[in-house]
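User: Reviewer 2 asked us to show a designed sequence for the structure in our supplementary figure. I'm pasting the structure tokens here. Could you produce the per-position amino acids so we can include them in the response letter?
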């Protein structure tokens, strides 16, 4: 409830008399003649305070700006939750069961309870929360439409009340996704006979708590994206104060980032999104690129780029450590299920891509003459040298751990080499995918984006199954397919370069 000054001298409209309406014409009544000296002095009008209902005012503004959009947004949210629940029931639960189902349940249970597995789990949760904080700098949970920011937020209303609806959407979504994820993992463990029924309750509660924590960290990161008087961690449990700290200019920037990312994704032009979300360089500004031969200069340029963007280096390191650990475990441990390699391939692929900014920059500027005199393939090879070397170091470390813990079969080393070749080829394909040449529909664009990642995941999963089965004949056939994918990626580099030059 808000109190505001009522305009001075304002009088209520006269009530209609019986037999007349408010709009009936009437003759003016005669004014009695009173001497001026006998007229009473009129009191000076003063402002009075009138109570206004903020909820009612916000409801009227919502109807004027969005019409029936609020009700439709709630219905769409409920439908999205229903589809997500069905997806977890139909696909998520069987996949989790397949991950934990193995012929040696006792050995797998001991490995999952080992200190290394617990440390990897904690690191994965920390990396997920860190990714949420990083995403909140560009797109937070509270992003109202631009008319609401321009017309409603400047009004003398409580900002926490004006932004509460969008925060509720994010908070309920985080709670639901966290609880559903915990329920799916706990049910998969129980159905695979690796845990009891109590595990389902524990994982559901833990998932719910992590969902709530992630949504509040997301909001806290959005508050910190704009300078303000209060940016402390105490805003995590003071949600109304956090909503009041959101600046209108910050909300405009986040709304613009949302439109930019959505437009770039639908048109297949990720360069626009990368340029819009690039932060100013604040690290390694005194470092300079030393002269040398073209190949070594390109490699040193990528090293300098990672020094100046430590966030990209750390995110790539975390993803590669996680993916390398899961893949090495899947290829070297007999108790590990084959589908574990499928799960580990995606973070390994994404971690390699986080280190391949130079490769993406070459693809963005494809067709322009090379100032160093190198060919397009030589330049691409130079840009994948650094991420390949870093990935080899990570995989080599995990192979050493596996060799120290138990035996290391030679087929596992061969399969890990093929996985590395496959990850390199997939990232080259992703960088030089070009622009879509079909009718831009969301489903087709999503499939077009996912082709490199799906190629890596599918072929890597086939390698894991054949390695576990000891089928070396078909393993050699799949290895030739992997090298064919690498040749395809090299041809994409040439084809896209020549197409732009033509």
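Assistant: Here is a per-position design you can include in the supplement:
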């Amino acid at each position: 409830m808000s109190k505001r000054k009522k305009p001075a001298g304002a009088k209520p409209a006269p009530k209609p008399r019986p037999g007349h309406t408010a709009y009936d014409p009437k003759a003016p009544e005669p004014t009695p003649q009173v001497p001026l000296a006998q007229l009473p002095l009129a009191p000076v009008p003063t402002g009075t305070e009138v109570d206004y209902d903020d909820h009612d005012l916000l409801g009227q503004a919502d109807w004027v700006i969005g019409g029936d959009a609020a009700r439709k947004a709630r219905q769409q949210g409920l439908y999205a939750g229903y589809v997500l629940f069905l997806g977890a029931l139909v696909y998520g639960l069987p996949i989790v069961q397949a991950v934990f189902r193995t012929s040696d349940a006792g050995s797998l249970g001991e490995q999952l309870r080992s200190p290394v597995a617990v440390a990897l789990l904690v690191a994965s949760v920390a990396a997920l929360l860190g990714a949420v904080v990083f995403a909140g700098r560009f797109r937070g949970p509270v992003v109202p439409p631009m008319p609401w920011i321009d017309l409603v937020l400047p009004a003398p209303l409580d900002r926490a009340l004006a932004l509460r609806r969008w925060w509720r959407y994010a908070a309920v979504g985080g709670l639901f996704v966290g609880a559903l994820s915990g329920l799916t993992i706990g049910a998969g463990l129980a159905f695979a006979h690796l845990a009891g029924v109590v595990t389902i309750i524990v994982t559901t509660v833990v998932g719910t708590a992590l969902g709530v924590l992630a949504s509040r960290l997301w909001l806290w990161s959005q508050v910190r994206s704009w300078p303000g008087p209060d940016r402390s961690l105490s805003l995590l449990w003071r949600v109304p104060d956090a909503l009041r700290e959101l600046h209108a200019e910050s909300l405009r920037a986040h709304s613009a980032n949302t439109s930019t990312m959505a437009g770039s994704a639908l048109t297949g032009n990720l360069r626009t999104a990368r340029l819009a979300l690039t932060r100013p360089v604040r690290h390694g500004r005194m470092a300079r690129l030393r002269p040398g031969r073209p190949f070594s200069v390109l490699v040193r340029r990528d090293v300098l780029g990672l020094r100046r963007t430590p966030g990209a280096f750390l995110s790539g390191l975390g993803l590669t450590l996680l993916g390398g650990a899961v893949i090495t475990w899947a290829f070297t441990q007999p108790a590990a299920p084959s589908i574990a390699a499928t799960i580990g391939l995606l973070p390994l692929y994404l971690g390699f891509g986080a280190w391949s900014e130079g490769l993406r920059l070459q693809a963005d500027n494809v067709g322009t003459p090379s100032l160093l005199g190198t060919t397009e393939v030589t330049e691409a090879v130079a840009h994948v040298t650094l991420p390949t070397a870093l990935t080899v170091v990570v995989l080599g470390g995990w192979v050493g751990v596996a060799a120290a813990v138990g035996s290391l079969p030679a087929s596992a080393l061969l399969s890990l080499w093929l996985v590395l070749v496959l990850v390199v080829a997939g990232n080259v394909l992703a960088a030089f995918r070009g622009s879509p040449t079909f009718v831009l529909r969301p489903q087709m664009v999503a499939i077009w984006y996912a082709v490199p990642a799906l190629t890596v995941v599918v072929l890597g999963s086939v390698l894991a199954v054949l390695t576990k089965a000891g089928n070396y004949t078909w393993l050699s056939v799949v290895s030739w397919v992997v090298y064919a994918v690498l040749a395809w990626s090299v041809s994409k580099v040439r084809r896209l370069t020549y197409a732009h030059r033509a």
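For the response letter, you might also mention the following. Strands lie at 2-6, 48-52. Residues 7-11, 19-25, 33-42 have pLDDT under 50 and may be disordered.
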